[in-house]
Write a structure and sequence with these properties.
- A hairpin with a 5-residue loop joins β12 and β13.
- The strands form three sheets. The protein has a seven-stranded mixed sheet, sandwiched between helices. A five-stranded antiparallel sheet has the order 13-12-11-10-14. Strands 4-5 form a two-stranded antiparallel sheet.
- The longest helix is centred in the C-terminal third of the chain and has 19 residues.
- The N and C termini lie far apart (49 Å).
- By secondary structure, the chain is of the alpha+beta class.
- It is built from seven helices and 14 strands.
- About 5% of the residues have low confidence.
- The chain folds into two domains: 210 residues, Bira Bifunctional Protein, Domain 2 (BirA Bifunctional Protein, domain 2, 2-Layer Sandwich), CATH 3.30.930; 49 residues, SH3 type barrels (Roll).
Length: 275
C-alpha cells in the first residue's frame, strides 16, 4: 500500500512526498521551504536514518515505523506557531483512536501499574503515550524565509512495528499493543485528523479550544510530577496547562510555576528524580 492523503487533506490543498527511506523528514521539509515550497506539504517515510527528538536526542525510525513531517510556510507569528505541537498531538491521538480503537493498555505514566486504559494520552509538551509508555514523539523546527516570515516543520515519529528497548522510560509500538495497522493506514488517518484540529486552531485564534481538547487527553493530570528545568528539578502536582500552553506545577508550598520548556517525569520516576 502506498502513502496517500485523506480526501479532506487533498481537498484542502495539501501535497504529499513519500520516500522509501530518508535521512530526516524534517530536514527535507526545511530544504523545501528554503527552496520556495509554499506548502502545506506532508513528507513521509517508513524508514528514517537520522531522525531527532527534542534537545538533539536521537529518534530511531526502523523499517515499518512512521516518520512524517508537515511543512507550513509563510507564517508570521512564531509564538502562535509554537503551539502547533499541541495541534499535532491532538491530530495524532485522533488518528490512533481511528486505526486502533479500543486498544487497552495497563502501564501508567513512567511505569506504575494503573490497570487497563483504552485511550492514547498526550504528555507535555510533545509525546503521545499508550497508557504511559511512549508511542510517538513530535518535534517542531522553524526557519526564516527571505520575505521576513518563516516556515515550520512539524515532525511526527510513531512506533508502528517496533520500539526501542534500551530507554530510561517505558516505550511501546502499535504492534506490541496488538493493533493491525501499518504506517500507510496511520498516515491516512493522521492527514485527515490534522484538518479538523488545524481548523480548530484557526491561526492561533482557537487556542482555547485546542487547550480544552489537549487537557481532555493529558497524561498525569492531577498527579505527582518532577520537571527538570536548566539542571534544577521542580516537584509538585501537574495542575493544568495555561492559556499559552505552558506546563503549570503546584509545588508543595502551594506556589504555581508556569514552565515553557523542560523534561517532565510522572509517577515512580518523578519520585526518584535527582535534584
Amino acid at each position: 500500500m502506498a502513502f496517500r492523503l485523506a480526501p479532506s487533506a487533498a481537498a484542502a490543498g495539501y501535497a504529499l512526498e513519500s520516500f522509501p527511506s530518508v535521512g530526516s523528514t524534517n530536514a527535507i521539509a526545511i530544504e523545501r521551504a528554503l527552496a520556495g515550497e509554499p506548502g502545506p506539504l506532508w513528507i513521509v517515510s517508513k524508514k528514517q536514518e537520522s531522525g531527532r527528538g527534542r534537545r538533539g536526542r536521537e529518534w530511531a525510525t526502523p523499517e515499518g515505523n512512521l516518520a512524517a513531517t508537515l511543512l507550513l510556510s509563510g507564517l508570521s507569528e512564531l509564538s502562535h506557531a509554537a503551539t502547533l505541537g499541541f495541534v499535532a498531538g491532538l491530530a495524532l491521538g485522533d488518528a490512533l483512536e481511528a486505526v486502533a480503537p479500543g486498544r487497552s493498555v495497563s502501564i501508567a505514566p513512567d511505569g506504575a501499574d494503573a490497570g487497563p486504559r483504552s485511550r492514547f494520552e498526550l504528555k507535555w509538551p510533545n509525546d503521545v503515550l499508550a497508557g504511559g509508555a511512549k508511542l510517538a514523539g513530535i518535534l517542531l523546527e522553524s526557519t526564516g524565509l527571505p520575505d521576513g516570515r518563516f516556515a515550520v516543520a512539524i515532525g511526527i515519529g510513531v512506533n508502528v512495528v517496533a520500539h526501542p528497548a534500551d530507554l530510561p522510560y517505558p516505550a511501546t509500538s502499535l504492534a506490541a499493543l496488538g493493533a493491525a495497522c501499518d504506517a500507510e493506514a496511520l498516515f491516512l488517518a493522521l492527514s485527515d485528523a490534522w484538518i479538523d484540529n488545524w481548523r480548530a486552531w484557526n491561526g492561533g485564534r482557537g487556542l482555547a479550544e485546542i487547550r480544552r481538547r489537549w487537557l481532555a487527553r493529558a497524561a498525569g493530570l492531577g498527579g505527582e510530577v518532577a520537571v527538570r528545568v536548566d539542571g534544577e528539578v521542580l516537584r509538585g502536582t501537574f495542575e493544568t496547562i495555561d492559556e499559552d500552553c505552558r506546563f503549570v506545577v503546584r509545588d508543595r508550598q502551594g506556589r504555581a510555576h508556569r514552565i515553557a520548556a523542560g523534561d517532565v517525569h510522572f509517577g515512580a520516576i518523578a519520585s526518584a528524580a535527582a535534584g
